[in-house]
Amino acid sequence: MVVVLNGVLADECPTSVRALLAAHPGYRDAAAQLLGAAPRVVHAPGLLYVAQREFAATVPHDKNINIIGSDDATSCIIAVLRHSGSGVVALAHLDGTGTAEAAAAMAARVQQLAVGYPEGRLELQLAGGFTDPHRYSDELFANIMLSFHRLTVEIDLTLACCCELNTALGGGAPAPLVTGVGVDVRAGDLFPATFPDKGPDMPLRGARCITGGLHSAQHHGANDIVTTSQVLDVYDNALSMLRIGPFNYDPLRGVDLWLEQSDDFILQHLSTTPAVEPPHFVMHIRATLKFIQQHPFPAVTVFPDNRPHYYRRDEQTGCWVPVRY
Questions:
Q1: Residue 230: which of 246, 250, 209 has the closest Cα?
Q2: Distance CA 222, CA 213 (A)
Q3: Which UniProt keywords apply (predicted)?
Q4: Buried b / exposed e across 160-179, counting CB within 10 Å, b at 16+?
């Protein structure tokens, strides 16, 4: 494939925001439009939240989902892939692990859900990441661009609010301007957002990132797309249910010792960008470490039957509730 830049097929894929802007300065205006939009606080009803190293896709006529989104992306980048004709949208929170596989899975899922809509194009929007001291985001941006560029379909890059375009300099250390985005599934609009309620099983979902957890075998139909072992598809479109797992991870050595450390020690040693993490970062890490401590072998204690945890949307509260399926 080729990434389409400003409506033109790109022979070479720009692997930095600077190179992108040098050839297509209009992307600066698109980023400024996102940065100038009023941030929204999105609560649980109607929300499909995607955590780090996850992706999900949905359709405009899904009565359970109004907003799909993710936040807490400091050095990470959130990728949104949307089919303009059908309105099908996929969102991933990428941290550098499984990037190529995630790009391929997102494109396959969107194309699958958009079957029957011949008109429309695939549009890619990237947000998050900043000019961090170690240049993690720069490397991630390059990998994301190359991963989509290598696919066999045309994809229009419409937004790249990343790296230098998403960095606040001021008088202090560099910091990201936008760390979360949501997509209005029906309108297709993307906006800055934070999500106080990130949904169920968050310590379990976080454990995958700390330990590098891998998928166990899953039950799939003949037409299902099997996702990568690194970036987990967390939404079952056929059932309209949130789906977590099954996966396994190795016991984390020294987890007891980690839990004895100070908040500052955990912040400095378990974050790639300790200076710009949100206030709840350490609380989330501690909850995740405690979960790993209690469940060193999740294949045995969390997924004993090797089946996902399913959640359906409660009609009264709008929140996800567990269901046996």
A1: 209
A2: 25
A3: Hydrolase
A4: bbbbbbbbeeeeeebbbbbb
pLDDT in tens, 90-126: 999 999 999 999 999 999 999 999 998 878 999 999 9
Rounded (10°) CA dihedral 9, 10, 15, 18: -100
Distance CA 315, CA 283 (A): 30
Residues with Cβ within 8 Å of 13's Cβ and at least 6 positions away in sequence, in order, are 2, 3, 145, 146, 149
Cβ within 8 Å of residue 211, ≥6 positions away: 249, 250, 252, 292
d(CA 156, CA 115): 19
Which residues, 6+ apart, have CB-to-CB distance to 200 below 8 Å? 242, 244, 309, 311, 320, 322
**Separation of alpha carbons 325 and 319, rounded Å:** 18
| Residue 164 near residue 131, CB atoms below 8 Å | yes
Q: What is the pLDDT of residues 219-248, one digit of tens each?
A: 333 333 333 358 999 999 999 999 999 999
Range of the domain at 93: 3-323
- Eight-class DSSP state of 275: G
Beta strands in 28-117 (DSSP E): 40-41, 47-49, 54-58, 67-70, 77-83, 89-94
d(CA 242, CA 220): 15
Residue-by-residue DSSP string for 155-169: EEEEEEEEGGGGEE-
CATH classification at residue 312 = 3.30.1330.200
Neighbours of 260 (CB within 10 A): 8
